[in-house]
Amino acid sequence: MGQKDRQAGAKYVIAAKFEVEGVVEKHDVIGAIFGQTEGLFPKEFELRGLQKSGKIGRIDIELKSESDKTGGAITVPSSLDRAETAIIAAAMETVDRIGPCEARVSIEKIADIRIDKREKIIKRAKELMREWVVKETKDIEKLLEEVSKEDQKVQPVHYGRERLTATPNIAQMKEIIIVEGRADVINLLRSGYTGIIALEGVKIPKTIMGLTKKKETIAFLDGDRGGDLILKELMQVAKPKYVARAPRGKEVEELTPEEIKEALANKVAIDKMVSHDKISEIAEKLKGTLEATLLRKDGSQVDRVPVSELVNKLKESKDIDLVVFDGIITGRLVDTAKEKGVRSLVGERIADGVKVPPDLEIKSFSQLG
Length: 369
Hints:
Helix 11 packs parallel to helix 12. This protein starts with a helix and ends in a 5-residue tail after the last strand. Helices cover 38% and strands 26% of the residues. With 369 residues, it is an alpha/beta fold. The chain has helices spanning 3-6, 26-37, 47-52, 82-92, 113-153, 182-190, 206-214, 225-237, 257-265, 276-286, 310-316, 331-339, and strands at 12-20, 60-66, 69-78, 97-98, 101-112, 157-159, 164-166, 175-179, 196-198, 216-221, 242-245, 268-269, 291-295, 301-306, 322-329, 344-350, 361-364. The radius of gyration is 28 Å and the shape is elongated.
């Protein structure tokens, strides 16, 4: 089995070196690592169990003996998160005997395999781009010319007494998409969509109020605080039938055609959404309980569990969209939520230094409103 096979599925690789005052073999080194780290931490951090579950890969040992001394390298693939991997590495450094001999183990580095992969991808992408440019320059120029001509044919118009930016056919459409601004209309128009109109402000225009009463509407909003506020206002005065959102941290005007298609496909019926008021109500009930409520996209509750079990529960669950809990939002919880596709985390407070991924919304109880 090669190194590539042993590291399949791993995110990190622990690289260590060791020195032994005597002659030992590979099985002595592996036995020392397993034996002397056992019992240091709770069962879930024991190497034997982690290896059986596939979270720690096969430990690779390279050694050489001469002059009654043995030295070498230890490689340990890990699919745990960063903190857990660091704990395993630190535990390995506590090994002070291998076989009957005194020994020293030191960690040289913890490498992120994904960084190497990204660098290879970027390098290959550059090569492909160069090849593409050389081979397809003429076709690209022709394509750009055609797109430019098409862009000149279809331009947004002004609609209603507020002169809102819209597509030319807005009055004839039975289904329309409400977006925030002119740039959003243009982006959807260039991506092949019609029946689009812009709010052009936080205050909902009367033209929009009238359209929502006569037509089936989708509110397609930015994935930021501004989008949250507009949605809250829409639900009060011009409730659309569906709501679609750009990925968290992105605006509709910057989405690719593929991202637009995905966002609209994931639209949610307004009567099945969990409102800001509902989230506040759940948070109020959870205060002082040290418990968590897990909800699906349609607002139905999946489970209610102690905060101490939240990370493990998320790992086991599917289709969780929102988590509200009486506890601290930590980096480990954020990593788990991102891996499981959770859209929103609402906790009592947010730990210092927590980095928020662009596709995950995080709020503290004090930010609910």
